[in-house]
UniProtKB/TrEMBL annotation, chains A, B, C, D:
Organism: Salinomyces thailandicus
UniProt-recorded Gene Ontology molecular function terms: hydrolase activity, acting on carbon-nitrogen (but not peptide) bonds, in linear amides
Domain of life: Eukaryota
Record's protein name: Putative formamidase
InterPro entries per the UniProt record, alphabetical: FmdA_AmdA, FormamaseFmdA
Amino acid sequence: MPEKGHRYAAKVDLNKDAAEQPYLHNRWHPDIPTAGTIKPGETVKIECVDWTGGQIKNNDSADDMRDIDLTKIHYLTGPFEIETAEPGDVLLVEIQDVQPLEEQPWGFTGIFSKQNGGGFLDEIYPNPAKAIWDFEGIHCSSRHIPGVRFAGLIHPGILGCAPSAEVLKTWNDREGQLISECSHMDRDVAKPPEPHNVHAGSAGQAIKEKVGKEGARTIPGRPEHGGNCDIKNLSRGSKVYLPVHVKGAKFSVGDLHFSQGDGEISFCGAIEMAGCITIKFSVMKGGMKKLDMKSPIYIPGPVEPQFGPGRYIYFEGFSVDEKGKQYYLDTTVAYRQTSLRVIEYLRRFGYNDYQIYLLLSCAPVQGHVAGIVDIPNACTTMGLPIDIFDFDISPHVEAVKRDMGSCAFTSS
Amino acid sequence: MPEKGHRYAAKVDLNKDAAEQPYLHNRWHPDIPTAGTIKPGETVKIECVDWTGGQIKNNDSADDMRDIDLTKIHYLTGPFEIETAEPGDVLLVEIQDVQPLEEQPWGFTGIFSKQNGGGFLDEIYPNPAKAIWDFEGIHCSSRHIPGVRFAGLIHPGILGCAPSAEVLKTWNDREGQLISECSHMDRDVAKPPEPHNVHAGSAGQAIKEKVGKEGARTIPGRPEHGGNCDIKNLSRGSKVYLPVHVKGAKFSVGDLHFSQGDGEISFCGAIEMAGCITIKFSVMKGGMKKLDMKSPIYIPGPVEPQFGPGRYIYFEGFSVDEKGKQYYLDTTVAYRQTSLRVIEYLRRFGYNDYQIYLLLSCAPVQGHVAGIVDIPNACTTMGLPIDIFDFDISPHVEAVKRDMGSCAFTSS
Amino acid sequence: MPEKGHRYAAKVDLNKDAAEQPYLHNRWHPDIPTAGTIKPGETVKIECVDWTGGQIKNNDSADDMRDIDLTKIHYLTGPFEIETAEPGDVLLVEIQDVQPLEEQPWGFTGIFSKQNGGGFLDEIYPNPAKAIWDFEGIHCSSRHIPGVRFAGLIHPGILGCAPSAEVLKTWNDREGQLISECSHMDRDVAKPPEPHNVHAGSAGQAIKEKVGKEGARTIPGRPEHGGNCDIKNLSRGSKVYLPVHVKGAKFSVGDLHFSQGDGEISFCGAIEMAGCITIKFSVMKGGMKKLDMKSPIYIPGPVEPQFGPGRYIYFEGFSVDEKGKQYYLDTTVAYRQTSLRVIEYLRRFGYNDYQIYLLLSCAPVQGHVAGIVDIPNACTTMGLPIDIFDFDISPHVEAVKRDMGSCAFTSS
Amino acid sequence: MPEKGHRYAAKVDLNKDAAEQPYLHNRWHPDIPTAGTIKPGETVKIECVDWTGGQIKNNDSADDMRDIDLTKIHYLTGPFEIETAEPGDVLLVEIQDVQPLEEQPWGFTGIFSKQNGGGFLDEIYPNPAKAIWDFEGIHCSSRHIPGVRFAGLIHPGILGCAPSAEVLKTWNDREGQLISECSHMDRDVAKPPEPHNVHAGSAGQAIKEKVGKEGARTIPGRPEHGGNCDIKNLSRGSKVYLPVHVKGAKFSVGDLHFSQGDGEISFCGAIEMAGCITIKFSVMKGGMKKLDMKSPIYIPGPVEPQFGPGRYIYFEGFSVDEKGKQYYLDTTVAYRQTSLRVIEYLRRFGYNDYQIYLLLSCAPVQGHVAGIVDIPNACTTMGLPIDIFDFDISPHVEAVKRDMGSCAFTSS
């Protein structure tokens, strides 16, 4: 290693519009120009803006949440060409560290309006809301959600290699079909390519238009490359094995999270931040076949916050919705019910429901598939760590309502 | 505590037909006669048969899996009347210990025929199969799945209080409605009451008929009382808070598991066993309102097997099925894909797919909801512990096919 | 494995004098007759009496502690001959399970009189005392130390293979030399062979006399074979590698502990119990040379109680004694000081010092060597788990004195 | 919190002689001038040089180890005055983060010559040696000890408040007495005040002379204030409760370690580094009496690297030295033997003894007091994490000697 530390493969400028920065992009497309070259075996630092590119401010209003422009997101850093990587290889990404930027030691968790983005519980909680989190070393706390403080399980929400033209076509076809099948539904079921606000890095106009027309949106994770998988445990020390679909891999990363709960239920639900990720890259030649790999796999790092199994309260939810309707092994319904059970539990201490919705999105809650075969009920669980609260939330302790202030709401 | 140990609230006889034993029953109904009375604060031992009541044998054929009679299951021990418990209370169940019966130190994991019970992957793996597990203290191993050995996370698959008549009606109504709505589907979506093979404990004929006609099947867990929630972490030292719906609570327990993976994907998927559970009971008066509780909650015990986060390989799955069809935030589809990814990975070492399907059902795999809001893809993960294998399954090690024998299949 | 479970290699009878039972012995000597033969690869159950052979009773007086006859202890079960084992081999002992005897679900922790046995803090706490612990499944609690309850980290205090005649001579020589060098000291520094109350299993008179004259006492662990190493983490699932010094290994085990703290400071300091241990034996031919092994090594099992690192309060102690005298890198003095710091801390809650001394001996406290090179001060730490108390002992919570009753003391 | 992050209470300059920097000092004395003032409740960043003040270089020779000037060490940053703190209070120090300096991403572990500093095993390994460690995010590896890589448990070796004049006199008296009592010994047993190379921060000449004459050396931790306790678990997220002896507390910190093993056996045994520590300070008024506190206590943070208990090999050592001499409950002798057992074990893989001695000093080995009452043998254990090696060191795997290169030695 160079004695003075690893080089920066890319830096960002928080005082400049994300759309103007050439090492950022906001669509998946094989033709986005490379942001630099990295050697196999090399470790580099990569800076990232927050996923919205700075649209959300450190203040006490959720107006910015309400007004967010989702055609702009997510701003990713890259793509980087990894030398020797070819289609069929596996790119091994070792996450050596993730840190907030020193000049911006805070992040945000948000709830979008049901009319603009929505979230997992938007039928019940349709309004925008926001919490700002201050970072104190490895810990964070929020003036908008008093009484909690926890160590971040810091990680990137998005990382992946570029799709090939063929993979990209598969994505657009199958998501397009879902959109047409669900046209009767009252909500967006997927996001088609969107030329408006496309950012294709340093691409010229022709490529930029092509990317706008064909480029896959960054919102969903996808089986072929990972992408926005929003896995809370991809933290310091993790190793991720990513399928390579194009020459040079064209790796991008972004959407850094100081912390996230399983499910990231409010959609803008992690503690979103700008930051710097240190990665070591290696190439496993012919890895996809060797590992018989269709989707990414990973091995978590050794330094996750540990609470001890007996320091969680677990809530159960089943595939019967809040109106009493029975669903057939619907795990999504079950997990929504599980989330509601936690909200009902924590509300007793004086929090409003939006505060709890925000908290479950970003705190290190454990969301498990428990039983998925006992017809007709899927059962999921959510483990809430007792020790992130500075008062005792145990069921054997009588709940006392406290003044918990409020999260940020919109001005009108 | 009595100096000589806790009393047995119920014992079972493995040499006698389960249907003949008066402290067992196989439906949920408020009128099943009590199997005994327990004082609040008391700790008792309760023996249980395996969930099938002995239909599965320690041999090398899956014929018994194919021929299983599902109208008989699950055989539960109880119901026990807990003194002072009344509707609206919460029954606190502290699981002090769970042990296999000394005279039967083995268990089984099974895959049912798609025609008779099925399981999570039955479209792909429609045939019956079986693995027998030998217990060596806290560990288990199987002649049908060589190369693995692990400590059990021992727990009851089913525990809960009896439904009131009103709760029972709710169950029958909503599940009946699902059945009628799904009559076009090629498979059972729920099980209605079934008089055939009903076992109502020591009930007389009239009650038995009533239970047969109205009694809820034990297969699904249900939000109002828990029941067959199949939560792998309800192990030694756990505390479970259960809603009480009838006077005396009428608590039943059964379906003991030596170990289970999140999801228990093959349905008969845990390591099913006969055993003894030691429970301390307490009553929290008015607990449902105090805790604002609609479904059970629990706190795991402190002695779960610990592998360290870096000793899991995690697999990702998304809501795109194996034919390439895109689903809208369907977590069940995502978890099925996640399971298939693990099968593909482990197949490289010489296991057949049924062996792996069995293993993922019963070994302590961690099934997580990762992202559930990134339209259209739900993302789930499954963590496979490296250290349950006696060879190195790490991705950086070249996979060598071994002779892994086979699980048990049917004779014809 | 036999379908009906592992065989008992030895059973004990709690209603019979330990000195009369042929499979027990209380000295280390190669000539003690074998108590049975075990095949390599075999798993057996071995029952053990408590280390005192039943001298301590479940009552509220410490008279039995004061009057204990230490010439009788420890009663071990064995020795067992492991087929094929020869000097120079390593005996691999896999501890599959440890359980209390069902008919005796309680144990004891004691402090001996400074005049008869003593303990780590006997200069300060010279009087006998006792606590009785009731087992509730994996948990224990004591009427003599209210306010605490914890899961046992159950293990054998003693296991090892018989010394050869040569090894035995080494022991007797070097300990004899210490005794003569320390004759000026006010206390026993080691225990020489003691014919009185020797128990040599089924030996005839001649052998019994020889064992009495030469047999090593069981109190110290010793580097050549382990023995009474009192390691709290040798629990369920552990693998221990033991040097073999005689043909057949002649393995013995006993001194079962339901739980113990690092140091077992009060000497009779674990939760001492009668019980049954299930062990799988294997022989590693030529293992001592292969592993370059002089003393036993082990790998703990995976099911230790987990509290999370942030759920311990750690106390520091240095090699300056309570009179202010400075010692040179004396870790024993440092650990004594560390223990005293915890006593001072817990005393604030209403416990008397003897209760705490007992508690630190048997609860799962973590005793660490921190710094051992910073002349002149060795520094050790003791981690006290917060979650074994049913009230909050955190330093930020104001300590309130409670009525904590008392441990058992002598009648006069 | 200020939106732009916490302020630096002190910065260091790696290009300038440590002895010239006014915020550093290298003795404990109440009269060293304050380096700044911190408010209770405030969080600040504090930079530190490595403990030697840059005497050790990133190269492949141990000449700098041999030639080190120990009159200069340790360079600490401070002392800081914490507003409102007074004698008898407790200073609560929350370690929010510790990081290496970005411009110096490496550290060193050293063995001093027996003639100049020595270490725990210097009778056996008297020569200087060195290993340089490169930091890769949270991990480190060394060209001098191939085959290992691990996550750092990063922490300060030294933190504490200044002694009062009275406390200082106690230290000098009792250590002086030890020195005179041990004048016959062949080695330094303690370090008296040393005017040569004293650094008293920004003090004028008179104070500097006083500090030189009276100031306590920083090498030992001491019960009254902690100081150089070298506790490996004082890492990110820890809370330390420190006794206050002078007005303003006069807190100092330094000797940052990227990682350390229990005991830090080679003396310069941690991975020593320059870095930045982020601390939140609070004052607990009258805390010493409230907590009945004589020595510091602490609560570790939640993010320690976790290996799982079954991923350690534990070695046992007893108080019989390598010449066969028996000691009476000498835990220091036992821990030395334990260390030697690990060296013998690891030597089989091709490492030289000095490489292993260095490794055990700095890798996260667990050093436990096991039994400390079984006369005459104290028993200690050392747990070696299997997963820090990139090959399998398990005892069941045949050891193969590899080319492990060498650590750095002196040039002649």
